[in-house]
Amino acid sequence: MEKTGGAGLPDEPGLRFGCASFNQDSTSLALGTNTGYKLFSLTTVDKLDCIHESAGTPDIYIMERLFSSSLIVMVRTNMPQRMNIYHFKKGTEICNYSYPDRILGVKLNRQRLVVCLEESIYIHNIKDMKLLKTLFNTPSNPSGLCALSINHSNSYLTYPGSATVGEIILYDANCLNTVLTIPAHDSPLAALTFNTSATKLASASERGTVIRVFSIPEGQRLFEFRRGMKRYVNISSLSFSPDGHFLCASSNTETVHIFKLEQLVPSGQEDGTWTSYVSKIFSAASSYIPTQVSGMMSQDRAFATVHLLTSGQRNICTLAMIQKLPRLLVATADGQLFIYNVNPLDGGECMLAHKHRLFNVDDFMGSEGSETTGPAQTCPSYAATAALPSFGPVSATLTGYSEDVGAKKGEVIPEHEFAAGPVCLADENEFPPVSIHKS
Q1: Distance between CA atoms of 135 and 352, rounded to whole angstroms?
Q2: What are the pLDDT digits (tens) for 131-160?
Q3: Using CA atoms, how far apart are residues 20 and 131, in angstroms rounded to an integer?
Q4: Ramachandran sector of residue 36 (left: φ over 0; alpha: ψ -120 to 50; beta: rest)
């Protein structure tokens, strides 16, 4: 699922959202508000467990959880240049770091923690929070768009390579070098996401009409899906299914699309179907008609869809296996989580399996614990960990670690304020990172 920038919801009586994010394997949902945050476990359809709630850290606009561990990362609006890392089960802060500009995005896996500013990216070793690399003077990225793979054998990072066209930089966050540049779209990027094995990368541009999938690390275009042709939209999230066979996309419209990643029959092989026959006709015709038109003919449409009742704002969605069945999850701005059943064989319109209210009546205008199983009214949701409008400056940062493992004069590096000694995030009894044992 991908982050895009934008303001939070308008002020209104009760609770106001600052951010929402699914964790790396879509087993947990984190919500940040102006009163605190909540963590939910996503293991069953009918029951939504709130595993942790805090009212002591208000105004959170970025919040990420490391898989199903106790480690959470958050950024608050009153200190937008500071990142805090907590052990929520112990109720203690592990450390905090300050940066020279407003933090727009945070991504983490079991090897790396990445902090994205508008024109720079900081890469930390997550086990001790040592700063490994700083990418200075990156193209202007006001939404903090980036993606980090979660596969434990590699850590690929992607971010925009241009502020004017949809160019993608693929960076190896383990070896700390640029792998390649992918010319993905004609307009600037709006969303990026890896599949679980980090063999595919999906992207969408600000136009929102076409979603493309590339092979990693080669950067070859594998699939091209057309979300729509009539209007430009703002893609707010992209997410692969755990097996990598499906890709969901949500936007500021009322429709959530699910695409199926199916390879066409290899050249020279005949399947004797009507689809194969029509594909041959389109392929032959493409040499006689304009490239733009033939490209549209060859693009796949949505395999399955969900139609929300309203549109106009961003939302977040993800695909997950819950109780051994494929589900589409959509979190909405009115404090609800919708879980839909996905038919992996026939697709079509997804059926609503359950709706959960995420806040009680004291927090939000709704009934505590109320749940319905019908297509009740939904509000479009907010972007995952959406960046809110800028706030005033905070205290200046200090010179700290450099890429060369030492203080370098003139560089503004995150301040390490963990006074009790070196940061150690490798306590496997408490949370990942985990050691991978090879047979």
Answers
A1: 44
A2: 999 999 999 999 999 999 998 888 999 999
A3: 26
A4: left
